[in-house]
Amino acid sequence: MQGEAAAERFQLIDSLSDRFSTAWLFRQLGVARSGFYDWRQRQHNPGPRAQENAAITAQIQTVFQRHRGFYGAPRVHQELRAAGLKVGRHRVARLMRRAVLKARTRRGFRPCRHGGSKGAGVAENHLQQDFSPLAPNRCWAGDITYLRTSAGWRHLAVSHRKVR
Length: 164
Description:
- By secondary structure, this protein is of the alpha+beta class.
- The protein contains 6 helices and 2 strands.
- It has a two-stranded antiparallel sheet with strand order 1-2.
- Helix 4 packs across helix 5 (73-82) and helix 5 packs across helix 6.
């Protein structure tokens, strides 16, 4: 039995041990007695690696909060290395996941530019709101909208042709 699944079972045994026999709980949950007692010992006396991880996590949280949650694992790692702490990027990423520290994105994508900036921008209004053409197929109107979906940005194009 590995990792978090074992820890959940051990916590359950620990919480139910006052109402049920521990031997019965070990059999029902399929865990070894020695594994449970090792886990309980580690809970009260964390090893040097766990203590080091706790200290690094505190420093990670400090850097993360100083940058208002915008820094992910690579940048936090870079800051910690610049401060003289020897720690790997993957360890920083793992500790950030455990501490539920996820970087925010800066700002959403704005696909449409307005007015005189570089690129196409907003097209000139040639019709001046006169949608009564003199002949068929002379006046077309259209619009394109950008929609954010779970699969990314999608474009919705709509056109209208008025024929008499």
